[in-house]
């Protein structure tokens, strides 16, 4: 009787491996399609709210570069007062873990590690400033959403009244 179970167990194991492999391959194709949306030039507007209650309207330009499982968004945002900052977001997708990780750098001194996952057209990333950051803030969430016109970038402080909130709406040029 035990001898008859071996071929059945082996067949089940092969079928499970084939389904898992096909699912992983489909996930890789889906991620490649998602990542391609970051390729190009984007312009738009947004708003930065500081912890103290002040806010600034922003005008931004970003270049997106996608190479395989890596994406870089490099841009510049400025206010009407001609204050400007450069932002760089580097992301990597790991097909093995199906997670994203990377780094956020802003020329005024913000440096944060990013990590998270994608659900549909939304990439939700933890935003944890490093010791290198000039004005460390509490942890936050950075969300990058793909939509028909381009990208939306939102940063939300985890503690109300502390940290910064950012909303950018970028259209592809």
Write up this protein.
- This protein starts with a helix and ends with a strand.
- It is 20% helix and 53% strand.
- Strands 1-2-3-4-5-6-7-8-9-10 form a ten-stranded antiparallel β-barrel.
- Strand 5 (99-106) and strand 6 form a beta hairpin.
- The protein is built from one helix and ten strands.
- The chain is an alpha+beta fold and 173 residues long.
- It is globular and about 40 Å long.
- The chain has one helix at residues 2-36; strands spanning 40-49, 55-67, 70-78, 84-94, 99-106, 111-119, 122-129, 140-147, 150-157, 165-172.
Q: Give the % helix.
A: 10-25%
Q: What's the β-strand tally?
A: 10
How is the biggest beta sheet arranged? 10 strands, antiparallel, barrel
Mean pLDDT: 83
Q: Which parts are unreliable, with pLDDT below 50 for 5 consecutive residues or more? A: 9-27
User: What is the helix/strand order?
Assistant: HEEEEEEEEEE
Structural class: alpha+beta
Rounded to an integer in angstroms, the radius of gyration calculated over CA atoms is 21 Å
Distance between the termini: 68 Å
Strand order within the widest beta sheet: 1-2-3-4-5-6-7-8-9-10
Q: What fraction of the residues are assigned to beta strands by DSSP?
A: over 45%
How many helix segments? Answer: 1
Quick one: overall form?
A: globular
């Amino acid at each position: 009787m035990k001898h008859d179970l071996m071929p059945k167990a082996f067949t089940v194991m092969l079928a499970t491996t084939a389904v898992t492999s096909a699912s992983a391959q489909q996930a890789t194709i889906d991620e490649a399609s998602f990542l391609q949306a970051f390729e190009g030039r984007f312009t738009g507007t947004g708003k930065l709210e500081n912890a103290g209650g002040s806010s600034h309207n922003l005008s931004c330009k970003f270049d997106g570069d996608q190479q395989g499982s890596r994406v870089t968004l490099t841009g510049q945002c400025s206010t009407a007062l001609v204050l400007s900052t450069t932002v760089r977001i580097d992301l990597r997708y790991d097909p093995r873990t199906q997670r994203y990780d990377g780094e956020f750098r802003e020329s005024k001194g913000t440096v944060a590690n990013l990590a998270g996952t994608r659900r549909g057209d939304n990439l939700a990333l933890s935003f944890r400033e490093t010791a290198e950051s000039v004005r460390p803030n509490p942890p936050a969430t950075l969300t990058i959403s793909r939509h028909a016109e381009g990208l939306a970038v939102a940063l939300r402080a985890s503690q109300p009244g502390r940290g910064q909130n950012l909303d950018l709406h970028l259209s592809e040029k």
